[in-house]
Every structure is written in structure tokens, then in C-alpha cells.
Amino acid sequence: MRYQFKFRPYQRRFVRSLTTNHGNWDIREGIILRLTDETLRVGWGEIAPISWFGSETLEQALDFCRQLPEEITDEIIFSIPDELPACQFGFESACEWGSGKWGVGSKGDEENNFITPNSSLLPYSGLLPAGEAALNQWETVWQQGYRTFKWKIGVDAIAHELEIFESLIHTLPASTKLRLDANGGLTYEEANLWLWTCDNLKANGELPLEIEFIEQPLPVEQFQEMLELSMSYKTAIALDESVATLGQLAACYQQGWRGIFVIKPGIVGSPSRLRKFCHQHQIDTVFSSVFETAIARLASLQLAAELSRNNRAIGFGIDHFFEQEETWLQSLCKDL
């Protein structure tokens, strides 16, 4: 199949800075792709890299797009190197969109609907702000319908965070599930303390809600330590930064990880190869956002609907971090 190829970079400011162990994030940058096939069917894709998480940089993605001709083929798309996982995802997703298999494709200048349909019956997880702000803002996220929350840890001194955690678990409704995300920012001793605290509270009947898992407690290079911790405590651990790309995901599986894998479709790489791996190994997955627009979100939710097991909430509860995007996105794409 041959496609007419166009692309356009974008910048999108967060309503408030997103604070993680990696620092503050103020502006989301990415690239919108448009592929038009020989029947004039249009497919939209998005490249939304996070270089500090393991993908290529935005500049590398832009360089790749700039060197492509105006007409590209399936052969070019499916030979994008593994060093460009966000590009792999963006271009393959645009092919799938244009094929009509999701029921959203259009022809020529017909208007596309960029509002993400409810393509998954899975529950959603809402992201709380880091630190004490979570105590004041969880109700807003709750009112939006979320019943699973993610809270960033490893951002402040551990003693202070444990105090906030104690307040948070007694403030949130008992039906809540809470995920603690360290973004690889804990020391081995701190990870032990968090896991021991969660186990101890539960054992003593002092945990009023469910701690679903602690996400990526240690840096990527400390995989063996995380494997050891996962076998030493009842509180589950999920890998995130350690499995950012398909190559990393496969490597962790081969080294014995049978716990939870957090998959960020926007940067993991080829959707077709991800499907093959998940079907082959039946891994326990949580699908999560990379703060993409509705274009990449639609593609990500299609994968989540196909590949999620154990009914775990998917991490796409991020709408409150941006202004309403529909008009902005339609305007952005109009000239492509």
C-alpha cells in the first residue's frame, strides 16, 4: 500500500506542571501524522516521545519524518528501527486508523471525529498531583468518575511522604484502589520501607483501602533487586520504566518477571509486535498514557481493549491535566 504522508509538530501546555521524580514537565510536544492511501482513505497517527522514559527524542522523531518522501509504503513503515519506538507506534497506528478497522476512518476532506470513543469497558485510573496537593484535589478526580488513583512518590523526603500517605489513605473512600508510582526514584532501603509499611498496615487491619501496587520503585538498572522485592512482600510491584519499549519488556520477561507490566503504547513500539508478544505470553498488563492527544489515545485504547487481563484500571485518567482539546486538535489537523 502507498500513502501520501504529511506531518505537523505540536506543543501543548499542561494546566499545571506535572511533577515526578524526573522533574517538572510543563509542555507536551509531539507530532501529528496524516496518511492518505490510494483510495483516499485518511489515517491519523501521533508520535509522542518521552526521551527520559526510554523513547527517542522529539528531534530524532522530527529528523526521521523530515527525511521521508511525500509518498511512503507499508515496507517503509514496518521497517522503522527499534531505536524509534514512538515513531513505530505513530506510523503503524495511522495505517490501522486508515484501514477502517476501528470504525473511525474517513475519506478525503470528510471531517474526522477525534473524540475518543469508549472503546474499552475497562475502568480508568485517575492521576493525582504529587505531595499534599492530592489531599485537596482527589475529590475533583473522584467526581469525574475515577475509583482507582495513582499518586506519585519519591518526589519529597520519604518521612514527609509517609505522613501524607497516612492522611491520604484515611481520606480516600474505602472503595478506592491506590497505586503508588515512584518513577524509579526510591533507594533500596526506601523501597523496602514503603513495601513493609503497606504490608504492615494491611496485616494489622489498618489499611482502609486497597494498595493495588507500587510502580517502578527502583531505577531500571536495579531489576534484580525489584525481582527480589517482588518475592519478599505481599504488596505487588509493577514495572514501568523498566519495560518502556518492547525490547525491554521481552528482556524483563526472559529474566523471570511474572508480575505486572505497565505498558505505555505511545512509546512501546510496534503495535503488531506488541499484540504478538502479549498473546504469546499472557502477561499481566496495565495500559497507561503518555499524555498524548486523542489521536494516539484512540490507538492506545484499542490495544488496551484487546490485550488487558485481570480487569485492571487503565491509566488514561489525565484529561484534567489539559484544557479541552477537541477544538485545538481539529484546528491543528485542519491544514494537514
Give an account of the 3D structure.
The chain is α/β, with parallel strands linked by helices. 44% of the residues are buried. It folds into two domains: 2-113 and 325-334, Enolase-like, N-terminal domain (Enolase-like, domain 1); 124-321, Enolase-like C-terminal domain (TIM Barrel). It has helices at residues 58-67, 74-77, 85-99, 133-143, 158-171, 188-203, 223-232, 246-254, 265-268, 271-281, 294-307, 326-334, and strands at residues 2-20, 23-37, 41-47, 71-73, 106-107, 124-127, 148-152, 177-181, 210-215, 237-239, 260-263, 284-287, 314-317. It is built from twelve helices and 13 strands.
Radius of gyration (CA) equals 20 Å
Number of domains: 2
Helix-strand sequence: EEEHEHHEEHEHEHEHEHEHHEHEH
- CATH T-level fold name of the largest domain: TIM Barrel
Q: How many strand segments?
A: 13
Relative strand content: 15-25%
Which ranges are low-confidence, i.e. pLDDT below 50, for 5 or more consecutive residues?
Answer: none
Helix amount, in percent?
25-40%
CATH architectural arrangement of the largest domain: Alpha-Beta Barrel
Q: Major sheet: size, sense and barrel closure?
A: 8 strands, parallel
CATH H-tier superfamily of the largest domain: Enolase-like C-terminal domain
Indicate the mean pLDDT: 93
Strand sequence of the main sheet, in spatial order?
A: 12-11-10-9-8-7-6-13
Question: What is the first-to-last residue Cα distance?
Answer: 20 Å
Computed structural class: alpha/beta
CATH class of the largest domain: Alpha Beta
Q: Helix count? A: 12
Which term fits the overall shape?
globular
